Amino acid sequence: MISKSHLVKKVFDSVADHYNIMNDVMSFGLHRVWKKRMVSTMHVNQNCKLLDVAGGTGDVALQVIEKEPTTSVTVCDINYQMLRNGRDNAINKNKLSLQWCCADAEYLPFNDYQFDYYTIAFGIRNVSNRKKALQEAYRVLKPGGKFICLEFAPMHYQNKIFTKLYDLYSFNIIPKMGKLIAKDEESYKYLVESIRQFPTQLQFKNEIEEVGFTNTSFCNMSCGIAALYLGYKTLF
Ligand SMILES: C[S@@+](CC[C@H](N)C(=O)[O-])C[C@H]1O[C@@H](n2cnc3c(N)ncnc32)[C@H](O)[C@@H]1O
User: Fold this and answer.
1) Which of 125, 145, 229, 232 is 20 to 30 A from 187, comparing alpha carbons?
2) Which residues line ligand 1 (CB under 6 A)?
3) Spatial separation of the C-alpha atoms in residues 234 and 183, rounded to whole Å
4) Is 54 annotated as belonging to a binding site?
5) Per-residue confidence of the chain (236 residues) as pLDDT tens digits?
6) Is 178 exposed, middle or buried (0-12, 13-18, 19+ CB in 10 A)?
7) What is the CATH number of domain 4-14+28-154+199-232?
8) 34 — phi, psi (to 5°)?
9) What does the entry list as the binding residues for S-adenosyl-L-methionine (predicted)?
10) Is residue 50 left, alpha or beta, with left meaning phi > 0 and alpha meaning psi from -120 to 50?
């Protein structure tokens, strides 16, 4: 049987070239609004160091440096194709200050206490060992550093009609769009199924606390389709 990390690599190798357009089409552009909200929770300045893990094509990173161009932003992702497309796109936009690093969220190649912010958008559900990735997030943050995670929620608790429509869209329409645009139906089936397997908002908030983060919270966005999680590394 193929391991989760191999499957995830295969999925993102396959979708990398159509990733940005598929995101816009699938979410009707909503992912940009969610990411904007994520970036609005940061108070970045020229002394800030931010690590965007599973940063893919650098969407979040670009929004951060648009807000504050002097912030030091490193985009880290396990998939070289995603990073390469992101780097090329950033160069085309003349955003040359971003740093790009190909690495696994479970084994970050950074020393302890390096970053003021650790962000991860739509990435945590793809890592094989979530606890290890969260421990790494905690390790690389400075004391008082902020953990910010954006992720789809499994929608177990929504009203029945909304859930039915959302399921219909997710399981029937998204894979077909994947087939049409990215020429890959199976990868989009995986992406949709992985959302349903992700813990509920409360369960994931508990997981964040289990590795040491304090003052944790989450807020639902767009009727709970996605959720934004926050947590802080303790000061001492
Ligand atoms: C859905 S994309 C999100 C990309 C970007 N954050 C965004 O919101 O547009 C998920 C990303 O997670 C990356 N990823 C999956 N497993 C990873 C891991 N163990 N370590 C680092 N990145 C990983 C994939 O390569 C992919 O680029």
Assistant:
1) 229
2) 8, 12, 53-56, 59-60, 77-79, 82, 104-106, 121-123, 126-127
3) 46
4) no
5) 678 888 898 888 888 998 888 889 888 999 999 999 999 999 998 889 999 999 999 999 999 999 999 999 999 999 999 999 999 999 999 999 999 999 999 999 999 999 999 999 999 999 999 999 999 999 999 999 999 999 999 877 667 888 888 888 989 999 999 898 888 899 889 889 999 999 999 999 999 999 999 999 999 999 889 999 999 999 87
6) buried
7) 3.40.50.150
8) -65, -40
9) 57, 77, 104-105
10) beta
Domain boundaries, the chain: 4-14+28-154+199-232
- Mutation to probe ligand 1, out of 122, 188, 192, 193 (largest number of atoms < 8 A from CB): 122
In the 8-state DSSP scheme, what is residue 37? H
Q: Is 184 annotated as a binding residue?
A: no
